C-alpha cells in the first residue's frame, strides 16, 4: 500500500510469473544466500515510482512533471520507470487510478438509484480532494494528446464502467430498469453531468446535485417504451395569450447559465 496524503494506493503485484515462481521456490541470490519469501525488490521500486508521481504532481503539476524527476525522487533509473509505463501520461493516470482503488466501488443495496447515487458521491469526494486537479489536468492535456485520453479511459474509466454495468444490470433484473436499456447512454448522462460542472464550473458540484441527477435520469430510464408519453406541448389551457405554449420556468441553474449566452440566444 502507498499513502497519498490521507489516501492509499492499492498496487498490483506487477511480478512476472517466472520471477514470482523463483522467489517462492527460494532460489539463491547472487551471493549464494536464499532471499526471504515476499515481494521482489522491483515491486518496491514500482511503489516508490507511484508515490513520487503523486508527490511531484502536487508540487509541479502535470505539464512540468518529467520522467527524469520522478525517477530521481523514487531513486530508480529511467529504464525502471519505462519498464512498467510507456510514457508520463500512462504513469500519471495509473498513479491516480491506484489511489482511488478502494474508494469507488459500487454498493449493492437493492436499489439501483441508491447504488448509483452513493458511488457518484464517492467520485465527487475524490474530485473535491487534491486529486481532482489530476483529473482536470489529464482531460485538458488530452485534448491535444489522444494517447493520454486513451490511457485515462483504459486505466481509470473502463474498470469503473464495468462495475457500473453490473449495477445497472442488477436494476434490470429487479425490474427497476427496462431490459433494452442503453447502458452506455445512461452512464454518459449520469457522469457527463459531473464532468460538465467539474470543467465548466458554471454551478456547484455537490451531493445535492448528484441526488437530483440520479432521481431525474434513472426513473426516466425506467419508463418502458410501451407507456404513453406526454404530449410535446401543453393543451390550450397551458398556452399564453399569444397562443404560444408555456414551456415552464427555467431552473435556477438554467437561469444562471443564461449569463454565458449571447443576448440573441437568451
Describe the fold and architecture.
- The chain has a two-stranded antiparallel ribbon.
- It contains eleven helices and two strands.
- The model is unreliable at 11-33 and 225-250 (pLDDT under 50).
- β1 and β2 (7-9) form a beta hairpin.
- It is mostly helical and 266 residues long.
- The chain has helices at residues 17-24, 41-64, 67-74, 78-84, 88-99, 112-128, 132-142, 146-173, 183-200, 207-221, 252-257; strands at residues 2-4, 7-9.
- Helix content is 58%, strand content 2%.
- Among the domains are: 2-12 and 40-98, Tetracycline Repressor, domain 2 (Orthogonal Bundle), CATH 1.10.357.10; 112-221, Tetracycline Repressor, domain 2, CATH 1.10.357.10.
Task: Describe the structure using short key phrases.
Tetracycline Repressor, domain 2, two-stranded antiparallel ribbon, mainly alpha, 266 residues
What's this, in brief?
This protein is mostly helical.
Mean pLDDT: 79
The largest β sheet comes out as: 2 strands, antiparallel
CATH topology of the domain at 112-221: Tetracycline Repressor, domain 2
In terms of structural class, how would the helical and strand content be classed? mainly alpha
Radius of gyration: 24 Å
CATH superfamily of the domain at 112-221: Tetracycline Repressor, domain 2
**Order of neighbouring strands in the sheet with most strands:** 1-2
**CATH class descriptor of the domain at 112-221:** Mainly Alpha
The low-pLDDT segments are 11-33, 225-250
Overall body shape: elongated
Which secondary structure elements does this structure contain, and how are they paired or packed?
Elements: E1 2-4, E2 7-9, H1 17-24, H2 41-64, H3 67-74, H4 78-84, H5 88-99, H6 112-128, H7 132-142, H8 146-173, H9 183-200, H10 207-221, H11 252-257
Antiparallel strand pairs: 1-2
